[in-house]
Amino acid sequence: MKAAIFREVGQPLEIEEIQISKPGPREVLVRTAAAGVCHSDLHFIEGLYPGQSPMVLGHESAGVVEMVGSDVTYVKPGDHVITCLSVFCGHCEDCLTGHMSLCASSETRRTHEEEPRLSQENKIVHQFANLSSFAEQMLIHEHALVKIREDMPLDRAALIGCGVTTGVGAVFHTAAVEPGSTVAVIGCGGVGLSAINGAAMAGASKVIAIDMVDSKLEMAKDFGATHVVNGNNGDVVEQVRELTGGGVHYSFEAIGLKATAEQSFSMLRPGGAATVIGMIPVGVKIELMGAAFLQEKKIQGSMMGSNRFRVDMPRFIDFYLQGKLHLDQMISKRIGLEDINEAFADMKTGTVARSVIMFDH
Ligand SMILES: NC(=O)c1ccc[n+]([C@@H]2O[C@H](COP(=O)([O-])OP(=O)(O)OC[C@H]3O[C@@H](n4cnc5c(N)ncnc54)[C@H](O)[C@@H]3O)[C@@H](O)[C@H]2O)c1
Ligand SMILES: [Zn+2]
Ligand SMILES: [Zn+2]
């Protein structure tokens, strides 16, 4: 099958033929229908997060089940699924207390002694995030997918696989935004726009979108932003304070920068909570005003929107089909696998919400 391979930091991905193994007892072979290009993939290409090589990136996808292992009863060939990197073991402390997105069990992967899921001329090709979606097929643990209704278009379903679950989940689960509260979201990519959409669904009284690209701020209004701030025009924190009379109840950082993570904390009202969704590069520290803790300001991280994806994702599909979740506008471009490097170049300009790779089999 064809896959986009990461070999070296800073180098373009290469489209090559690789081999995929057969499902083990609890594994599922999925034919990839669509895969979104998320900024997290770019962090690994740029070396801001360490990755193994060679590796097939991609982790935001939907597809159709092709073959299942001998012990799999949850899905059968022909079922439509969304994949999720929050693969859960189902019996560790995190899983049993409802924090499945924190499960770190290795038992959902193959061991070094087993044949690798992906290979090329008998040499291992590493799987990214237990998924590797930039490929025509994925071989994954049965706990890395959710079955979905078949009237859901698979390209929009793919977005739910990461960006939507991350952004909406950060609002619903990690921060638990209440109706009437005020929200600011810094960064209006696929993740930030989803957080804005989530805040609007949660009934926030003000949703302030912040970005440096005007076209993104226009998009943000379609996703539910009531106010927009362009980071190029003056002090972002001051403007948020002015718009809210002293700061927001909830802020979300959806970029992955030290400066904007610090802004997310500075723009809180007393008692407010900042949620950092963006992947701050490994080794980077963020600095906060210590005295602000006397005002009970909080800052926290969020992994994949603190999801319980087998519950959340079918609900998000219902929200989309009811017109509440705006996934049509989120797809800026539909591309082929061979256009993947251009999608990353586009991402760096900040002008696209999501590029989605379509696999036409
Ligand atoms: N925590 C998680 O589980 C998780 C999951 C998915 C993605 N992420 C991370 O979320 C972040 C966002 O992902 P994405 O795919 O939406 O990215 P993206 O590149 O599509 O969007 C980033 C947006 O931020 C804007 N921006 C850049 N610098 C800015 C600045 N200084 N001030 C204001 N706006 C600025 C850009 O114009 C763009 O609109 C990334 O760091 C990604 O790795 C985290
Ligand atoms: Zn992602
Ligand atoms: Zn677990």
What is the 3D shape? globular
What gap, in angstroms, lies between the N and C termini?
11 Å
CATH-defined superfamily of the largest domain? Medium-chain alcohol dehydrogenases, catalytic domain
How many helices?
9
* Helix content percent band: 25-40%
Ions, cofactors and other bound molecules: nicotinamide-adenine-dinucleotide, zinc ion
Task: Tell me what you see in this structure.
- The structure is a single chain.
- This protein has 2 domains: 2-161 and 306-358, Quinone Oxidoreductase, Chain A, domain 1; 176-301, Rossmann fold, CATH 3.40.50.720.
- Helices cover 26% and strands 26% of the residues.
- The chain contains 9 helices and 20 strands.
- The protein has helices at residues 39-45, 93-96, 154-174, 190-201, 214-222, 236-244, 258-266, 309-321, 340-349; strands spanning 2-6, 14-17, 19-20, 27-36, 55-56, 61-68, 80-83, 118-120, 123-124, 126-127, 137-141, 145-147, 182-186, 206-211, 227-230, 248-253, 268-276, 298-301, 331-335, 354-358.
- Strands 4, 6, 7, 11, 12, 19 and 20 form a 7-stranded mixed sheet that branches.
- The chain starts with a strand and ends with a strand.
- The structure holds nicotinamide-adenine-dinucleotide (NAD) and zinc ion (2 copies).
